[in-house]
Amino acid sequence: MSSSLSLKIDSDLAGVGPVARAVRALCSETLDELALDELELGVVEALNNVIKHGYAGQKGSLVQVRVGLKADKVVVEIIDQAPPMPPSALQPSDPWAGIDAAEPQDLPEGGMGLALIQMTMDEVAYSSRKGVNTLTLTKLLSRK
Amino acid sequence: MLSTETIDGVLIVRVEERRLDASKAPLFKEHVSAALGGDVNRLVLDLGQVEFIDSSGLGVIVSVLKRLGPSGSLAIASANSAVRRLFSLTRMDRVFILYDTPQSAIENLRA
Questions:
Q1: Which of A43, B24, B88, B100 keeps 20 to 30 A from A51, CA to CA?
Q2: What is the pLDDT of residue B106?
Q3: Where is the STAS domain (chain B) (predicted)?
Q4: Do A45 and B85 touch (CB under 8 A)?
Q5: Residue A33 maps to which CATH number?
């Protein structure tokens, strides 16, 4: 079994929710509820990141979302033509390190998106070729 | 976007949005700030109508906690499984106490 679907949205934060819900709905037969919650969160953070940082919050550019359903995994590709992320952006990071000892004033209010993408997905890959960036998010089917 | 009520000195902020995400976070922050006023230091955030929160929405909740100051307390009520997952992934479930209902949150803040 393998099928795929491609969606295109404008680089507008208001469009992220509907697309994330559509991706969730597409995968609802394939993944369990916890995996769907994580997938939706990861896709939202990835799209927010492209729009807020790649396109600097400007509307009017296209972001493509390609969903591939395979027998053993769901693969979501986020494709944009914004300036690419630096290679260091997807290094594992922990914005919450030391949170147990942290005072409320030291808690992070932002900069959590990329870490959440890593935490919600089983595999994350990023490539940038000829001005086209592809963030590939993979969620493996959990063995029930 | 939200409605408020004060019970026994505890401010209850009921979020009337299904999604608290990057597109809504700036406005949400404005509305909550306006609701806080001067002398509020115990607050229950009722998320019963909220289906989804992203890191931007969570950032606003953290900013509210900071605004309440060292003597303040902020409790979360009626978070669904997706929101609870966000709190556990980010370890914010160690910073905020999540209650099943606004009533149980109010009782604990009052105690």
A1: B88
A2: 96
A3: 20-109
A4: no
A5: 3.30.565.10
Q: What is the pLDDT of residue A93?
A: 79
Please enumerate in sequence order all residues whose Cβ is within 8 A of that of B30, keeping only pairs 6 or more positions apart, or say none: none
Is B90 in Cβ contact with A112 (below 8 Å)? yes
Range of A7's domain?
3-140
What pLDDT sits at residue A83? 96
A61-106 pLDDT per residue, tens: 999 999 999 999 999 999 999 999 988 888 877 888 777 777 888 8
Residue A107 has its nearest CB partner, among B21, B89, B95, at B95
Stretch (H or E) spanning B104: helix B102-110
Tell me the chain B residues in contact with residue A116 when contact means C-beta distances shorter than 8 Å. Answer: 55, 86, 89-90
- B2-102 topology per CATH: Transcription Regulator spoIIAA (3.30.750)
Q: Can you give the pLDDT at residue A142?
A: 74
Stretch A131-135: mean pLDDT: 98
For residue A108, is it left (φ>0), alpha (ψ between -120 and 50) or beta? Answer: beta
Domain count of the fold of chain A? 1
Chain B: residue whose CA lies nearest to A102? B95
CB pairs under 8 A between A and B: 82
- Cα Rg, chain B, nearest whole Å: 13
Considering only CB atoms, which chain B residues are within 8 Å of A20? 52
Domain map (residue ranges) of chain B = 2-102
The H or E element spanning position A49 is helix A33-49
How far apart are alpha carbons B84 and B98 in whole angstroms?
Answer: 8
Question: Would an 8 Å CB–CB cutoff place A19 in contact with chain B?
Answer: no
